Amino acid sequence: MLPFLRWWPSVNGSTTRDDAMAGLTGALIVLPQGVAFATIAGMPPEYGLYAAMMPAIIAALFGSSWHLVSGPTTAISIAVFASVSPFAHPGTPEFISLVLTLTFLTGVFQLILGLARMGVLVNFISHTVVIGFTAGAAMLIAGSQIKNFFGVGIPRGTPFFEILSLFVQHLQDINPYVTAVSVITLASGILVKRFMPKFPYMIAAMLVGSFAALFLNARYGVEVTHIKTVGALPSGLPPLSAPDFSFGALNQMLFPSLIITMLALTEAVSISRAVATKSGQHIDGNQEFVGQGLSNVIGSFFSSYASSGSFNRSGVNYAAGARTPLAAVFASVFLLIILLLVAPLAAYLPDAAMAGILFLVAWSLIDFHHISLLPKISRQETIVLWVTLIGTLIDLEKGIFFGIALSLVFYLYRTSRPALEPVLPDPDPASYHYTPLDGRSECPQIKMMRVNGSIFFGAVAHLQQQLQEIEESEPERKHLVVMASGINFVDLAGAEFLAEAARQRRKTGGTLSFYRMKNSLAETLKRGHFMEDVGEENLFPAKTRPAEILYPKLDNEICRNCTVRAFPICHQHLPNGEPRSS
Prior knowledge:
This protein is mainly alpha-helical. It is built from 26 helices and 8 strands. Helices cover 60% and strands 6% of the residues.
């Protein structure tokens, strides 16, 4: 319950200095990000900075990662906007109140999942779904900023494809002064990121864009340029706040909070694991759930909207030399100090410069490498990617669920069709392995098959069809030996299927036997009394030779005229013991 007691004894003067420097770097990084993310979420700019303070401290103290830094993120911000904007106008007190309710509920659900040890749930969200959702969210971010980037009149909250349509219709209304500031901001950010990678490119782009706007306004006048600014930020501590706990608000935010819960947890655990691969630290997913849940519950009372692990801040935190979670605490403290000093300067930050920065953010979010790689690897994963991406553009809340559902459907389809591969004993007489046929002829009476996959309700129909086809095409092969080491489990339907298959084989005078069946499977069959049909005598342990055990049961006349001689014992004598003639 107090995970910070594990790392606190390792804090000393050296680690504190390193953590303080990493915290200062993180505070500088989050300043433009926080304002940008709040804009995406439809919140006043200062709320993005509030979300980077208290939640970061709580998540650092109660999470499991030593380098994860929580705060506002792009995906969560766009999800917050999409979830709450249908119920209230962005930026209004009603909107802010619903966002705080959404944040509180998200934290409660995260906390419940963590305490219930349900961290495994995030494993069901595939990496492909995350890539598709992130790319879709990036395009939504860029789409939402088209009006600020070009200075055209597009209503806030307009759906993505409608934004594109309206933009084409208003090409003649593009404001050249606003566009110039946006392009200068975008270009300066790209150049700084490429040629001065150690310098915070967002801060550089923001400064260059702001000076460009000041120059244009001074030269031509605001009434001509129509360059708008963010406005001064209120300085001071994050004000205390209270979510709306009315039935209507809770009901409206219930489903969106579930979506943001899974999205936020996926982000946090994925990022913490990614950083842990470099630091060598072990990550406890359940503890991370608890830390994220507490950060959002407490944050909702300190004017913070939904937060999660930030990839940019966490990566910078690790690269800057952070050694304990105390670095995230320092980052929040330094951010507060910076806010007190520079809050009035935000009055000079143009909306066009912010749009340019958000275009940079959106571009960096799209994983072009994996998107181009997927078609070469898997057709199904490519379909999941595009369904998630397009679904996110149409409806962000449902897009990720469409992707998750489709990826699970494809997974179930694959697992419901376990591979059945004909095999024969390894040509090496000393080996107990079984290998593919590779042109070798099979025994006329014994069929050997390797099953790769579990036998459960979804796979039974496929296996029944496969066995029926074998029986119809090869009726003389009455004895079936299943190489069972690849079968991990059977459920009730699978156990009944095996028992029925054994009974059918006996009716035709044959047998169904298993080589190297796992003990857990055998115990399942015994507990359900299915072993009475399968027969323990038909279970062959490792380093036995099923063909030699079954050989006395074969038809003597078929063996007498057989020229295949698939097994070593076939060269010695006939099934009845009669010497085999050469």
